[in-house]
Amino acid sequence: MSPLDLLDVDSLLTDEERDIRALCRRVADDRVRPHVAGWYQDGAAPVRELAREFGKLGLLGMHLTGYGCAGASAVSYGLACMELEAADSGVRSLVSVQGSLAMYAIWRFGSAEQKQRWLPGMAAGELIGCFGLTEPDHGSDPATMSTRARRDGSGWVLTGGKMWITNAPLADVAVIWARAEEGVVGFAVPTDTPGFAAREITNKMSLRASSTGEIVLDDVRLPDEARLPAAAGLKAPLSCLTEARFGIIWGALGAARDCLATALEYAGSREQFGRPIAGFQLTQAKLADMTLELQKGFLLALHLGRLRDSTGSLRPEQVSVGKLNNVREAIKIARTCRTILGGNGISGEYPIMRHAANLESVLTYEGTSEIHQLVIGQKLTGLSAFD
């Protein structure tokens, strides 16, 4: 049986949600799974081609409204992330960064002109976006970012650099955050602007089917119309991260489910000491414990999705609970499934080691486990441990 069949969690979903999940599973099975091992080995994926295919299906910015976006529910978006990450975390990252970071920032904080200029093409997958917040020396503490924006007549000049930026080498527009005299400000920067450069980060051991880059901003001159007018202060980019973390809560479950399904199938056919290893107590204990955590993670994700659909938003600490738990448990599941496959667990013929390596990145990007623990701790105690 499927690991998520144990508690009949499908009964908690609507027909529309199940249909969206089935659509995403089909596209992952048809377009990603047959090729992703090769993409991972080569360290490259056809990002633009995938973006156009996902755009045709309405998967880019699917939880947003207007401008060609599908206006889907939070739960539907979460299920899409789960199915895409069951194929590969890097593929889900493409969709998350495009929709929940770059598109959401423009949709939430941009001007009417910016929204019309960028969002329809991004929703269709014809334009690629990236989100420039993390810097080489400033990750978990973005308030200390070094990138600067200074006024120059009626426009702006950006200087600095960003690091570990998904989609950056291919992006048509980069949402860039910088410090100015008035605080943190955001810009929608066309990547063909003089002074803007992005290089591919190579030799990655994780998320190899994802395009990741370093951005250099060398006196990038922009008109004031490039500034995101409704973005005021650090809360603006942090709210975008909260938006994207919701997809991670669901996506990590997809990677874990795929690992567990692989381990279940393998244990049923692999024989040692005259019988399938699925019949041994220690193997069954591993499978039972992993299935338990997968079920709990799904119920947590579903609760957060329903809460968001009913209230319109989630508090940061609620998202931290989901990201901390589900990614932490997903990587434990991947590692334990690897032990069930023994030596075959490290083979590229099976997806488990690839998922485990990808989840090492998911564990730390968009908030490390330690940061999410402190967010939760601050809410519980009323005391900040960040300073």
From TrEMBL:
<dbReference type="InterPro" id="IPR009075">
    <property type="entry name" value="AcylCo_DH/oxidase_C"/>
</dbReference>
<keyword id="KW-0809">Transit peptide</keyword>
<feature type="domain" description="Acyl-CoA oxidase/dehydrogenase middle">
    <location>
        <begin position="130"/>
        <end position="220"/>
    </location>
</feature>
<dbReference type="Pfam" id="PF02770">
    <property type="entry name" value="Acyl-CoA_dh_M"/>
</dbReference>
<dbReference type="InterPro" id="IPR036250">
    <property type="entry name" value="AcylCo_DH-like_C"/>
</dbReference>
<protein>
    <submittedName>
        <fullName>Acyl-CoA dehydrogenase family protein</fullName>
    </submittedName>
</protein>
<keyword id="KW-0274">FAD</keyword>
<dbReference type="InterPro" id="IPR037069">
    <property type="entry name" value="AcylCoA_DH/ox_N_sf"/>
</dbReference>
<dbReference type="InterPro" id="IPR013786">
    <property type="entry name" value="AcylCoA_DH/ox_N"/>
</dbReference>
<feature type="domain" description="Acyl-CoA dehydrogenase/oxidase N-terminal">
    <location>
        <begin position="14"/>
        <end position="126"/>
    </location>
</feature>
<feature type="domain" description="Acyl-CoA dehydrogenase/oxidase C-terminal">
    <location>
        <begin position="232"/>
        <end position="380"/>
    </location>
</feature>
<comment type="similarity">
    <text>Belongs to the acyl-CoA dehydrogenase family.</text>
</comment>
<keyword id="KW-0285">Flavoprotein</keyword>
<dbReference type="InterPro" id="IPR009100">
    <property type="entry name" value="AcylCoA_DH/oxidase_NM_dom_sf"/>
</dbReference>
<dbReference type="InterPro" id="IPR052033">
    <property type="entry name" value="Glutaryl-CoA_DH_mitochondrial"/>
</dbReference>
<dbReference type="Pfam" id="PF02771">
    <property type="entry name" value="Acyl-CoA_dh_N"/>
</dbReference>
<dbReference type="Pfam" id="PF00441">
    <property type="entry name" value="Acyl-CoA_dh_1"/>
</dbReference>
<dbReference type="InterPro" id="IPR046373">
    <property type="entry name" value="Acyl-CoA_Oxase/DH_mid-dom_sf"/>
</dbReference>
<dbReference type="InterPro" id="IPR006091">
    <property type="entry name" value="Acyl-CoA_Oxase/DH_mid-dom"/>
</dbReference>
<keyword id="KW-0560">Oxidoreductase</keyword>
